[in-house]
Amino acid sequence: MELLRVMKSVGFRLCVIFIVVAFLPISQAGIDAQSENWEIRIDYSGEWRALVESDNSDRRGYGSETITTYAASESATVRKLDDNSKEMCVELWKNGELVDSTCTSSAYGEVEVGKCKSNCGDPSVPFSEVPGFGFVSSIFALACSAIYFRKNKS
Fold it and tell me: Is the distance from CB of 71 to CB of 55 less than 8 angstroms?
């Protein structure tokens, strides 16, 4: 009877460890992947064309306009479709804060916002951000705890 109680206790511990280790990384990943509210504000009195990265869309317009998207990150390329020297300015806003802005007055000028322009930092990715890292870590932790409990049982 005592052996049965100990085995149930060890099984319960394994289940608790598995639930904590396996689902904790998943819940953190869900928080990191949330979408942000982005606005691409185009200030121009002529015709333009915008390529929006998050939804891979090609948009055309005339005059000033704001394009709203919801994504984890955003960037856009906007080009003037006429050969005048009027200034076109484009701003990228994230959750109400200005992230990037640039202007051009060149004929058929083009501007980019939200894209890395220089000194973009280290392109390497930490292991914790590699897809599947949390799952592999969970399996490893579960295997280690099973080995630990098996040794303590003997």
Answer: yes
Residue 7 counted as domain residue: no
pTM of full prediction above 0.70: no
Closest by CA position to 107, among listed 80, 142, 143: 80
Residue 135 lies in a domain: no
Q: Assess if residue 154 is contained within a domain.
A: no
* Contact call for residues 60 and 19 (beta carbons, < 8 A): no
CB of 43 closer than 8 Å to CB of 14:
no
Helix or strand (DSSP H, E) at 7: helix 2-32
Count the domains in the chain: 1
Contact (CB, 8 A) for 90 and 52: no
* Residue 154 parent element (H or E): none
What range defines the domain where residue 64 resides?
Answer: 36-113
Residue 125 is predicted with a pLDDT of 54
Domain assignment of residue 122, yes or no: no
> Which residues, given as ranges, of the chain have pLDDT below 50?
4, 25-33
Query: How many residues can be counted in the chain?
Result: 154
